[in-house]
Design goal:
Layout lengths: L3 E7 L2 E6 L2 E5 L6 E2 L2 E2 L12 E6 L10 H5 L2 E8 L13 E5 L3 E5 L2 E7 L4 E2 L6 E2 L2 E6 L4 E4 L7 H10 L4 E5 L5 H4 L5 H11 L3 E5 L11 H11 L12 E3 H6 L15
Parallel strand pairs: 3-6, 6-7, 7-8, 14-15, 15-16
Antiparallel strand pairs: 1-2, 1-17, 2-3, 4-5, 9-10, 10-13, 11-12, 13-14
Helix pairs in contact: 2-4
Length: about 260
């Protein structure tokens, strides 16, 4: 049985330990972008705690936060191809650029980079980069982290056939037509999960940001109403062991509220 845990820090930021390796996904401190805003509560991101690995899915500001990245120390940072020139410089860290369908090994953990259906650029600069999803596989546990993605039956089916997955971290957002091209709503998130063939589905990318992309809480409510046995819903700050997660932990309804904008 795998050792370790995962803590949901909000949006697409996950802090986890897998068989002794600590990693963080898409770290964010506080971002204000148009009329979108985040809860001002990411205490762990403000600390310089030791990490083995940080994974970045793409360069939108709600996933690629240079302020948060400057405050984080880690041995290895994995980023999409072409991110090197815009990434904050780190003296004692290895920066690895990846394209879709590549893999590397770190302390016995295998990381696969996969394509994501999402248009990525570093606003306001005309710098376009890949959008990636990742699989993190320790041998005893295999995780799929989508970052941000739209739906593709052929892509999710291919991933599900190629990899054995235990947990899928999938973004959920509004069901508005325009945003469904590059994001997963409730129905498409469930379709993607079933094609991936994972054992547990943990929604991410919800409950922290509200603005031009719509209200993702409505999407989460739809997921809750589905009463799926494989759904594991974590509120911001919640932590759960991998063993508990796979056995059914993390199903309590969260506080479905947004803070007032200040």
């Amino acid at each position: 049985m795998v050792n370790g845990w995962v803590r949901f820090l909000g949006h697409a930021t996950l802090w986890m330990e897998i068989d002794g390796v600590t990693l963080l996904t898409d770290p964010v401190s506080k971002v204000i972008w148009g009329d979108a805003y985040f809860k001002n509560h990411f205490p762990e991101i403000k600390e310089r705690f030791p990490l083995d690995l940080v994974i970045i899915s793409h360069t939108h500001k709600d996933h690629f936060d240079t302020k948060a990245l400057k405050d984080i120390e880690a041995r290895v940072f994995i980023v999409p191809f072409k991110c090197f020139r815009i990434f904050p410089r780190k003296k004692n860290a290895l920066l690895v650029e990846m394209k879709p369908w590549e893999e590397i090994m770190l302390n016995g953990i295998r990381i696969f980079s996969l394509p994501a259906i999402h248009l990525s650029w570093l606003h306001p600069y005309p710098i376009f980069t890949y959008s990636l999803a990742y699989i993190v596989d320790s041998g005893s546990l295999s995780l799929y982290f989508a970052g941000d993605t739209g739906f593709s039956k052929s892509l999710f089916k291919k991933i599900g056939q190629k990899f054995r997955l235990d947990v899928a971290f999938l973004p959920v957002g509004t069901d508005a037509l325009f945003f469904k091209w590059y994001h997963l709503g409730a129905i498409d998130a469930l379709r993607a999960f079933k094609l991936l063939g994972a054992k547990a589905f943990v929604p991410i990318h919800w409950g922290v940001i509200k603005g031009i992309s719509g209200d993702s809480l409505k999407t989460v409510i739809k997921l809750l109403k589905s009463s799926s046995s494989f759904l594991r819903l974590l509120d911001v700050g919640d932590a759960v062991s991998w063993r508990e997660l796979l056995m059914g932990g993390g199903t309590a309804p969260p506080l479905l509220t947004f803070p007032k904008q200040v």
